[in-house]
Design goal:
This protein is mostly helical. The chain is built from 11 helices and 2 strands; from the N terminus they run αααββαααααααα. It has a two-stranded antiparallel sheet.
Length: 236
């Protein structure tokens, strides 16, 4: 499938490599639903559209492969991976375990200012949900979790967590969201998590992250409604 929008690789950040620019272009097309899960990519057509050789395009696609967005199939090329229920379960298990580990190992460095910042971000999330501002909500949600994740110097762990979140949130980015899910996450889960942090209960906060907030079983009904409701409607 070839993107339908006109490419725009021009950028004032000319220090970025061509591979990085092509990667960002492809991710943008994916996020906007112009490249759909399950489709095979025509490298020649995309390279011609972008005005680049196949080399930076293949390099960008290989980066996407390492992040789980595409699969290389012998003699068939690159296929964009759909997101299955098992994928989501595995991502939740991994993110929950890693975020909880960061909090256990580095959470003692969280002070009042950091917790206050997280409460502020949570309030901004509530306003974004009320305004139906889907993109702003998710940007704020990432920033909320990054307050404690950024305490870690484990770059490999952080890269994995952020890559898995991209798979969950951006493939493709839905036009709408499940308001009751976001309201519950903000009003119940984030609030309970912050209360534990303010009491200095790092063990309890880490456990809550893993066993509630990032629990596939706890979130399953919301996950199904968000990711698979359209499939259910299309079934006879």
């Amino acid at each position: 499938m070839v993107p339908t929008r006109a490419p725009n690789l021009a950028s004032p950040l000319m220090t970025r490599s061509l591979r990085e620019q092509v990667y960002e272009y492809l991710r943008d097309e994916m996020n906007h639903g112009l490249l759909q899960p399950g489709a095979f990519l025509d490298l020649n057509a995309i390279a011609e559209r972008l005005g680049v050789s196949r080399t930076p395009l293949r390099e960008a696609l290989l980066q996407l492969e390492t992040q789980g967005f595409v699969t290389v199939l012998p003699r068939r090329g690159f296929r964009l991976n759909p997101l299955s229920l098992d994928d989501i379960r595995h991502y939740y298990e991994t993110i929950g375990a890693l975020e909880a580990a960061v909090l256990r190992n580095y959470g003692a460095a969280l002070g009042r200012a950091e917790v206050a910042r997280m409460r502020e971000l949570n309030a901004e999330m509530a306003r974004a949900v009320a305004a139906n501002d889907f993109d702003r909500y998710y940007d704020l949600n990432l920033a909320f979790h990054d307050v404690y994740l950024d305490l870690s110097d484990n770059k490999a762990l952080l890269a994995l967590v952020r890559s898995l979140k991209q798979r969950l949130y951006d493939w493709p980015r839905r036009a709408g969201f499940i308001k009751t899910w976001e309201q519950h996450s903000i009003g119940e889960e984030h609030t309970a998590f912050l209360d534990l942090l303010e009491r200095g209960d790092l063990k309890g906060a880490a456990g809550y992250l893993q066993d509630v907030h990032w629990s596939f079983q706890v979130q399953r009904h919301f996950i199904h409604a968000y990711y698979f409701a359209s499939q259910d409607r299309n079934q006879p």
